[in-house]
């Protein structure tokens, strides 16, 4: 069940800025009209009457104005995307944001009143499995955690203990060091996958033998409650319920996280796997 947030609304903020495809739009500028819905939890502010427990909409309005005047983009889509990301990074209390940028009397040589772009962006929660069985495995895992935490649009919230586990699939290889982490991110699934692949590559990962030895292995286990089935990316991870080296560290940091298809919690899946292995 998706959490429902409260809303703080800013409607029709007028900003004179320089965005557009044509050179004269970038030099002469024009008026833009911005509306924003900030999805947050206002409970504490409502109970305490304390502004610091909420989001100062005057400061947000000033931020929007300064951001759109300081930057120049050809497309409204780019302006909305960059503005939404900047607001989410600036205010921790904003969980999700809806931004609409209107461009009155856009230069299309037709009698229209306004054009606009409206987007909704927000934070997502991903669980990432980590593994290594070549070289200094702890160093590779530590460096991967650090690299993920240094992404400008992501933050590592919690990391499990590292566990020594036997190899899976191809058993004639060294034991693995495995762990899991919880990641708060603005990245979409394929964007996150690209970052994981980049971090693996920088760690010297070579994809020679399927399930073979590796310096670093990073897998998306969960991404919110998303169900995605593509040839190159499946979420939840298709093999997770069969892998103790995933379920054990994941159970340490998210024992009651439920699989969006089976409905079983991580701890329930681990109990079932242990029972199967006893048979």
UniProtKB/TrEMBL annotation:
Keywords: ATP-binding, Folate biosynthesis, Kinase, Lyase, Nucleotide-binding, Transferase. GO terms for molecular function: 2-amino-4-hydroxy-6-hydroxymethyldihydropteridine diphosphokinase activity; ATP binding; dihydroneopterin aldolase activity; kinase activity. InterPro entries: Dihydroneopterin_aldolase, FolB_dom, GTP-CH-I_C/QueF, Hppk, Hppk_sf. The keyword Chloroplast does not apply. GO terms for biological process: folic acid biosynthetic process; tetrahydrofolate biosynthetic process. Catalyzes the conversion of 7,8-dihydroneopterin to 6-hydroxymethyl-7,8-dihydropterin. In the N-terminal section; belongs to the DHNA family. Belongs to the DHNA family. Gene3D superfamilies: 3.30.1130.10, 7,8-Dihydro-6-hydroxymethylpterin-pyrophosphokinase HPPK (3.30.70.560). Residues 210-221 form the 7,8-dihydro-6-hydroxymethylpterin-pyrophosphokinase domain. SUPFAM superfamilies: 6-hydroxymethyl-7,8-dihydropterin pyrophosphokinase, HPPK (SSF55083), Tetrahydrobiopterin biosynthesis enzymes-like (SSF55620). It comes from [Ruminococcus] torques. It holds the Pfam family HPPK. Its EC number is 4.1.2.25, 2.7.6.3. Pathway: Cofactor biosynthesis; tetrahydrofolate biosynthesis; 2-amino-4-hydroxy-6-hydroxymethyl-7,8-dihydropteridine diphosphate from 7,8-dihydroneopterin triphosphate: step 4/4; Cofactor biosynthesis; tetrahydrofolate biosynthesis; 2-amino-4-hydroxy-6-hydroxymethyl-7,8-dihydropteridine diphosphate from 7,8-dihydroneopterin triphosphate: step 3/4. It catalyses: 7,8-dihydroneopterin = 6-hydroxymethyl-7,8-dihydropterin + glycolaldehyde; 6-hydroxymethyl-7,8-dihydropterin + ATP = (7,8-dihydropterin-6-yl)methyl diphosphate + AMP + H(+). This is Bifunctional folate synthesis protein.
